[in-house]
């Protein structure tokens, strides 16, 4: 396992909270990070307390990585919110470092993959490149379903990010959905 370094991991994140051992925020046992701040304001949001950009607490991204690596039982890192792409510059090095250490990295966004790519923002692209899976799309209360794995409404997609980037289009994470 590569040694912990501070390269890119000194950035501060504003978090609504951390769940040290989640079994519901992706496959396996995960460290779930909930960022503070979201511009979408989806009615019926699962985490309305994470919507305001003020509030929460700050933590260095390196401290989050240290928490992840301290627990040998963890399989992955989940980035939720709030809107993780609002803090992409700080999350991208964290996600890349976690993935380089063999952790599965998953994120949720109220944007679509296509909108993230069209924006042409280097920080968003860096975060995407560091992900294994992305759940994309806004939560739509009228399309809510309790039967879906890792998402709240049927417009949201569970995407295999490396495959999506290689193909230049959204590619479902079918292997994960079959096991969910």
Automatic annotation (TrEMBL):
GO terms for molecular function: 4 iron, 4 sulfur cluster binding; [formate-C-acetyltransferase]-activating enzyme activity; metal ion binding; ribonucleoside-diphosphate reductase activity, thioredoxin disulfide as acceptor. Keywords: 4Fe-4S, Iron, Iron-sulfur, Metal-binding, Oxidoreductase, S-adenosyl-L-methionine. It is an enzyme of class 1 (oxidoreductase). Its EC number is 1.97.1.-. It catalyses: glycyl-[protein] + reduced [flavodoxin] + S-adenosyl-L-methionine = glycin-2-yl radical-[protein] + semiquinone [flavodoxin] + 5'-deoxyadenosine + L-methionine + H(+). Its cofactor is [4Fe-4S] cluster. Transmembrane segments: none annotated. InterPro entries: Aldolase_TIM, NrdG, Organic_radical-activating, Radical_activat_CS, rSAM, rSAM_sf. Belongs to the organic radical-activating enzymes family. Activation of anaerobic ribonucleoside-triphosphate reductase under anaerobic conditions by generation of an organic free radical, using S-adenosylmethionine and reduced flavodoxin as cosubstrates to produce 5'-deoxy-adenosine. This is Anaerobic ribonucleoside-triphosphate reductase-activating protein. It comes from Fretibacterium fastidiosum.
